[in-house]
Amino acid sequence: MKFTPTALPEVILIEPDVHRDERGFFLEVFHGRKYGEGGVDAVFVQDNHSRSSRGILRGLHAQCRRPQGKLVRVIEGEIFDVAVDARSGSPNFGRWVGETLSGDNFKQLYVPPGFLHGFCVISERVDVEYKCTDFYDRDDEISVRWDDPDIGIDWPIADPLLSAKDLAAVSLSEAAPRLAGA
Q: Among residues 157, 167, 135, which one has the least CA distance to residue 60?
């Protein structure tokens, strides 16, 4: 199993060992001790599963008072997964990293608490599963614009399909006071 810090070192790309033979494959999708040794020392309390179609973009989302860390993986299909540092006072505030996760490459991305998270679908359909370090709280959630020029994410799709919540998202500068707990 390989754990690689990204350009934002708290965000970790995980490449599990995949054992393949004529019957198919086997892999560990989470092993607390191994993940802890690899830098993902988190306690997960909720698992989520989403299904989306090509061109859908979900994000950028975070919770303010109860920030969630997320361990993201794709079961089937392919996404471009993004984490944005939204920690008040961080030298990397507003910087982003993106990784392609797919059901074929088995890669996972750990997005720690204090980071915005989002993804866009680049396959016909995708099933995404992710573990969370805190429970979902709709009243605590904030959405930041996917196309905020101050962040400058280089998404692989130009005109995504967004939810009403994401269409009403604010800029990172508008979200910053809430993210800082103000």
A: 167
